[in-house]
Amino acid sequence: MESDEDQLDRIFMALSDRTRRAMLKRLQKGPLTAGDPAAGVSLRQPTVSKHLKVLEEAGLISRQRDGTRIYGILAIDSLVRAAIYVSQFEEQMDAALDRLAAVVEEPKREGEQT
Predict the structure, then answer these.
(1) 85: phi then psi, degrees, rounded to nearest 5
(2) Are 52 and 59 in contact (CB under 8 A)?
(3) Helix, strand or coil for residue 30?
């Protein structure tokens, strides 16, 4: 059985590729086949199939068969898992942004005092 850490590695590895991210965006609009020209990418069918396989292994899509066609469908669970992981750092990101805002505002305050 795969650990949570291994699953997160697969998710973030899949998301690290801009072609796969473009495919996920396209999947928001509906199912996608490997041979679908509306895939939003200009790659040959075998390459598209490989990207779809990576997305499926990461749990970002599922596949459904309709006759002879196999469709990739967006699977939201892995995206939620990635979002939960990233949200753990939200407090630190907010603190860093607050410090940055304070630095940016400091010259304005000094200019108002003179």
Answers:
(1) -60, -50
(2) no
(3) coil
Instruction: State which amino acid sits at residue 7.
Output: Q
Residue 95's alpha-carbon distances to 89, 105, 108, 109, in angstroms, are: 10, 15, 21, 20
Amino acid present at 9: D
75-108 pLDDT, tens digit per residue, is: 999 999 999 999 989 888 888 888 988 888 877 7
Rounded to whole angstroms, the Cα distance separating 17 from 55 reads: 10
Residue with tokens 């749990």: 59
β-strand partners of 61 = 74
> pTM for this one?
0.73
Range list of H helices, 18-87 = 18-27, 45-57, 76-87
Extract the tokens encoding 42.
């200009």
Distance of CA 12 to the CA centre of its chain: 7
Tokens read off for 105: 């505002």
Cβ proximity of 39 and 110 under 8 Å: no
Is 57 within 8 Å of 17 (Cβ atoms)?
Answer: no
Tokens of 27: 């999947």
